[in-house]
Design goal:
single chain; alpha+beta; Arc Repressor Mutant, subunit A; 4 strands
């Protein structure tokens, strides 16, 4: 279903969603935070292949978009916990659907592009 801004421009909700969460690392971080809140180094270990610099940048982007929140738990030692906001948590069904499709796709043998 398309929404229109004016007569000449249509907005597709799917395209707009992909603009927000469609990047490889954004979706990966949201996926891990959908399981539970995590500290920075936990995310770094789980999101294989991401650099700490990129993780920091993506977390900032997700916080600016209102999908992730950062909570200072302790000052000594400094403990920071990242978690999904209420808006970020609404993405869980999408993550679950992607997981189910991926499991089916991987076991079906159709993944010949790898």
């Amino acid at each position: 279903m398309m929404n229109t801004v004016n007569k000449n421009q249509e907005i597709c909700p799917i395209v707009e969603t992909i603009k927000v969460i469609g990047g490889k690392w954004e979706l990966t971080i949201i996926r891990y935070l959908s399981d539970r809140p995590m500290r920075f180094n936990e995310l770094l270990r789980n999101a294989h292949g991401i650099s700490s610099r990129t993780l920091s940048r993506i977390l900032k982007i997700l916080m600016e978009k209102g999908l992730v929140k950062r909570e200072l738990i302790s000052l000594q030692p400094v403990v920071v916990l990242y978690s999904l906001t209420e808006s970020g948590s609404e993405i869980r069904p999408v993550i679950d659907a992607l997981r189910k499709w991926g499991e089916k796709y991987i076991t079906s043998g159709e993944n010949t592009i790898y």
